[in-house]
Amino acid sequence: MIISKHLLGLEGVQREEISLILKTAHSFKEVLTRPIPKVPTLRGKTIVNLFFEASTRTRISFELAEKRLSADSINFTTSGSSVAKGETLKDTVRNIEAMKIDMVVIRHQASGAAHFLTQCLDAGVINAGDGQHEHPTQGLLDMMTLQEKFGRLHGLKVAIVGDITHSRVARSNIHGLMTMGAAVAICGPATLLPRDIPAAFGKDLLVFKKVDEAIQWADAVNVLRLQLERQKHGLLPSLREYAMHFGITRRRLEAAKKDVVIMHPGPINRGVELESDLADSEFSVILNQVTNGVAVRMAVLYLKSGGEQEVVNGNGL
After folding, report:
1. pTM
2. Rounded-to-integer distance, Cα 217 and Cα 226, Å
């Protein structure tokens, strides 16, 4: 299988490549349980983390993945950099590439920023979230978590609830899950759903108007954070009304009379999209997602840097 050196999104990525990434991530997760959770697979490689947008989980997860692979990592933030002085993204990355780096991990507020970098650099580019486009490693770690919980992705019913329009996590999950044979549904206020859903995601994507119906249908519910920083004013009457009509609560889960797995990409607006108690309950796999994020990013960095599939197995790392 020929694998691109970039990971810009999950739309169009073949089932075989997603399967390989997930298989490799499961192998790397075993490494994380060792007394010395480190392997020399990327020794001598230099990776630059370009974060133009605030991040905690994703940035730390990538940094930790790079350290676990023995790569040399450099962290870049806009504050205190030449970007604050007006330097363009192209000039910034070209100057960084001149320092002989191998890979760039970028998080940016503009959709398409990661794709733009591939036109400026010879180095591999990993998208850590670009605007309202995609967040592919989040989609992959969500799939890994579901795979661990249910033993499969094919035929699984996953409902994504919340602000679909502004969510790059939703896009990566929808594309990735549907490629792997899962049934996917979305649910949220009409003002936070894409206008032309079939054109954006295909006719197989289901839409629920009521969150109780979505929960009753689903095996797992991926609860999205309200993207208040990206929303225009007037899309929601109030956070209180959103919580009342679309918030995931224990009462709603118990009314469904079935075990439903709760996921969330974080950070959580407790008491808004998700009842605070529920985030820490037996229904939640949120902390599993965080752990799996490191393993998935190790797998992506390894494979996109030219790692061979045969090297990665349960005992060979």
Report:
1. 0.93
2. 22
Note whether 135 and 172 are within 8 A (CB): yes
In the chain the domains, ranked by start, together with CATH numbers, are 15-134+290-311 (3.40.50.1370), 136-286 (3.40.50.1370)
Query: Which whole-number Å values give the CA distances from 67 to 43, 88, 124, 138, in the listed order?
Result: 10, 29, 18, 19
Location of structure tokens 């590439």: 97
Which of the four pLDDT bands, split at 50, 70 and 90, describes residue 2?
confident
Place of tokens 């009462």: 251
Beta bridge partners of 73: 47
**Number of helices (H), then strands (E), in the chain:** 12, 9
Neighbour count for residue 159 (Cβ, 10 Å): 25
Query: Tell me: the pLDDT tens digits for 36-47?
Result: 999 999 999 999
